[in-house]
Write a structure and sequence with these properties.
binds ligand PBG; ALAD_AS; heme biosynthesis; ALAD
C-alpha cells in the first residue's frame, strides 16, 4: 500500500529561496521606514551614544550628511529630535526660531526638498530642565492645559522652519486639537500630524533618554503615558486623536505591543506607524555584540513582525542600513 499520508505538505512551498520569496505575505520596503535622528547644539563633533551603539548625537553638519544618506538609500522619512545647550522650566528652546531643531529643519528642508519626508518630534522633555514632557504645576505635576499652549507654539515654530509632519509625543489630552488649530491659524494647513496616539510608559525608552538627555529628574511618566496592561484604552486614544485631526497614528513601543498594532490597524482607516524604540534597538545590538544572536536576521525578523502586525510605517534606528540592504 502506498503511503497516503500526508497528502498536504506545506513544506513544498518552503523548499527554495525562490519559492519562499514568491509566497511571502509580508514585505519591508525602504519607503516604509522612518529614521530618528538626534541633533545637539554646541558640539563640534558627533557624539556616540554609549547605550545605542551606532547611533550619534549629531552636529548640524553631520546631521545633514546622515539625512542625505537616508534619502539616498530610499528611506521614507526622518524624525528629528533636538538637544538644546540650555534647558529651563518651560522648555524655551523648543519654540525658539533660533533653537537647534528649527535651525536643523531649515538645513534639511533646504538640502533635501521633497526627496524624503521631514518630521519633527514635538515634545518638551528634551528642552525642560526637569525632563518632563510639559510645564509643571507648583506641586510638581505636569499641567496638561498649560502644556498645550507650549505645544501649539512649538508646532508653529517647526512649521515655519519647513517641517512636513509634526509628531506630538507628550501624551497630553487634547494635544492634537491644540496643534491642528495652531497650525491652521498660522497658515500651515498643509503640515500633517503623526500622533503618538498610543504611547506606553515603557522601560524600553531608557537608551533614548541618554541620547536625548531627557530622563525625568524626579518621578516617571506613568501619570501621562499609558499603562502597559491596557489595550482597549489604546483604541480610545487613537479615536480621540483622529477626531482631533491626526493624519497618522502611532503605536509605541513596537515589539512588546504587536497585539495593539494589530488592533489599531483593524480599527481605523488611516496609516498606522509603529516606533521600534531605543531599547528594542539596544537589546538586539547588545546580544549580537556578545555573539548570542545573528544580528542581521534578528533585525529583519523584528521589522517583519511589526509589518505583519499591521504597521504601515516603522520608525527604526536601523532605517538606512536596512534600506541599503533591501536594495542591494
Ligand atoms: C519624548 C519621546 C521619547 C521617545 C520618543 N519621544 C521618550 C520618552 O517618552 O521618555 C522614545 C524613543 C525611543 O526610546 O527610541 N519626546
Amino acid at each position: 500500500m502506498t503511503a497516503q499520508f500526508p497528502v498536504v505538505r506545506p513544506r513544498r512551498l518552503r523548499r527554495t529561496p525562490a519559492l519562499r520569496r514568491l509566497v511571502a505575505e509580508t514585505h519591508v520596503h525602504p519607503s516604509d521606514l522612518v529614521l530618528p535622528l538626534f541633533v545637539k547644539e554646541g558640539i563640534a563633533e558627533p557624539q556616540p551614544i554609549a547605550s545605542m551603539p551606532g547611533v550619534m548625537q549629531h552636529t548640524r553638519e553631520s546631521l545633514r550628511k546622515a539625512a542625505y544618506e537616508a534619502a539616498e538609500a530610499g528611506v521614507g522619512g526622518l524624525i528629528l529630535f533636538g538637544i538644546p545647550a540650555v534647558k529651563d522650566g518651560r522648555g524655551s528652546a523648543a519654540d525658539d526660531p533660533a533653537g537647534i531643531v528649527q535651525k536643523a529643519l531649515r538645513d534639511l528642508s533646504g538640502d533635501l526638498g521633497d526627496s524624503i519626508v521631514i518630521t519633527a518630534d514635538l515634545c518638551l522633555d528634551e528642552y525642560t530642565d526637569h525632563g518632563h514632557c510639559g510645564i509643571l504645576t507648583s506641586s510638581g505635576e505636569v499641567d496638561n492645559d498649560a502644556t498645550l499652549e507650549r505645544y501649539a507654539s512649538i508646532a508653529v515654530a517647526q512649521a515655519a522652519a519647513g517641517v512636513d509632519v509634526v509628531a506630538p509625543s507628550g501624551m497630553m489630552d487634547g494635544q492634537v486639537a491644540a496643534i491642528r488649530t495652531a497650525l491652521d491659524e498660522g497658515g500651515y494647513g498643509n503640515v500633517a500630524i503623526m500622533a503618538y496616539a498610543v504611547k506606553y510608559a515603557s522601560a524600553f525608552y531608557g537608551p533614548f533618554r541618554d541620547a536625548a538627555e531627557c530622563a525625568p529628574q524626579f518621578g516617571d511618566r506613568s501619570a501621562y503615558q499609558q499603562d502597559p496592561p491596557n489595550a482597549e484604552e489604546a483604541i480610545r486614544e487613537v479615536l480621540l486623536d483622529l477626531d482631533e485631526g491626526a493624519d497618522v497614528v502611532m503605536v509605541k513601543p513596537a515589539l512588546t505591543y504587536l497585539d495593539v498594532i494589530r488592533r489599531v490597524r483593524d480599527a481605523v482607516h488611516v496609516p498606522v506607524a509603529a516606533y521600534q524604540v531605543s531599547g528594542e534597538y539596544s537589546m538586539v545590538e547588545a546580544a549580537a555584540a556578545q555573539g548570542w544572536i545573528d544580528r542581521d536576521r534578528a533585525i529583519m525578523e523584528t521589522l517583519v513582525s511589526i509589518r505583519r502586525a499591521g504597521a504601515d510605517i516603522i520608525l527604526t534606528y536601523w532605517a538606512t542600513e536596512v534600506a541599503r540592504s533591501l536594495r542591494a
